[in-house]
Design a protein that fits this description.
The chain has 2 helices and 9 strands. The strands form 3 sheets. The chain has a 4-stranded antiparallel beta sheet. A 3-stranded antiparallel beta sheet has the order 1-2-3. Strands 4-5 form a two-stranded antiparallel ribbon. A hairpin with a 4-residue loop joins strand 8 and strand 9. The radius of gyration is 22 Å and the shape is elongated.
């Protein structure tokens, strides 16, 4: 390893060949705009719906009301009585846990619909999709 200005650290293999470099966040923010066209562009792949987690929630369902399968988007008006039976899907299951937190993405407007199943009630939150993220919320190391 060798350091340059405490902003760049070169990495070497056991034979002394350069295998990479570590940049500080400050240096990366200056270099990234200059090389972004050289970086490979990957199309983000959607991971499969966590249907197994949904089935686990249904298997252990202990709420005093029946399993809840209706979903609606307050932003674009899209709705379904049973998201599991839709073909094509109007809502894509994004996450689900045994505590009753279930999240969907609207196929129409990409909004996030979060259903929170409590003992006596279900609350629903609908958050619009934002194309450009606020960089103030990015993690910095």
């Amino acid at each position: 390893m060798s350091k340059h200005d405490d902003n760049l650290t070169e990495l070497f293999d056991k034979n002394g060949n350069v295998i990479g470099a570590l940049l500080t966040a400050d240096l990366w923010s200056k270099v990234k705009p200059l090389i972004k066209d050289l970086l490979p562009k990957e199309e983000p792949q959607e991971r499969p719906e966590p249907v197994g987690d949904w089935n686990t929630l249904k298997d252990y369902w202990d709420f005093p009301y029946p399993v809840d399968t209706d979903v609606h988007c307050e932003l674009c008006g899209s709705r379904t009585e049973d998201w599991e039976k839709d073909d094509p899907r109007k809502f894509r299951l994004m996450s689900c846990n045994l505590g009753g937190l279930v999240s969907f993405k609207c196929a129409e407007c990409n909004a996030r619909i979060v259903k929170k199943h409590f003992k006596d009630e279900i609350t629903v939150e609908c958050t619009p999709y934002i194309e450009e993220k606020d960089t103030n919320y990015e993690a910095r190391y």
